[in-house]
Specification:
The chain is an alpha+beta fold and 296 residues long. It has 14 helices and four strands.
Length: 296
Amino acid sequence: MSSIITKIEIQKKNKERVNIYMNEEFAFACDAQLIYIHNITKGRSMEKENLEDIVNEDNYIKGKNAALHFLERSFKSAKQVIDKLTLKEFDIKTIDRVMEFLKEYDFVNDERFVELFIKEKIRSIGKNRIKFTLIKKSLPKELINGALNKITNEQQLLVALKLGEKKLATLSKSEKDTRKLYKKTGDYLARSGYDYEIIKEVLAKITSNDIEENERDRPNFEKESPTENTIKEDYDKLYELASKRYNILIKSESQKIKLYKKLGDYLLRRGFHWDQIKKVLKELINDIDNVTNEGR
């Protein structure tokens, strides 16, 4: 049955695509060139099914080309590709069809993406930071945890030791207080995503050559565990900073999950520990619906 084309409008975000309405209802979106190639004009009577076939094939070809271009420079997760195609305003059917093609020919493979990402990043950061970064890319937690579980503490310790020695050497140029040197080095490793036990072992190895000479000056992590007052002061400082940043972000961002991610990223860059950050985020952003649990 023929339908009347009642409206053709240029998309706001992509001037090269148009929305077509038939019988006053949205029918589909297509490349603007198609309306000239097939003489699609307002008021014309056309078979919707025939026109839809032409548009769908054209959308698929353009969506596939856009995805392949996006994948040229580096490997991407499935979610990253979907987000890119969505941003370019391709319809769901086209995106699904493009993703089937990409997965069939192994252009997109989340399992391989996680493995390659970890293989590259494990040389410079710890498992905690890697996990946080991968979750931000919307990759499945089970996939991330499974791949990270293959990384041994010995592997992490070797990298953390090199990073710790390099950081200590850099800090030593301007900082002569031994206590502050090791505190700053430990904080640096924590921000890099290493667990407390690995950090403690790294600091112990770094000081092993002069342990007798510097025993009084070197901070002992076990003996100098923070007091309740210190913990509260640190938390109050974190909460105050987070509140100020939150009040700025809500002026331009209304989605809670995006607020959560942006605020979390900001606080991590300021050197705060994720366990404390999670508590503050839960207080500031109510009803976040499970994005706070184990996610980062």
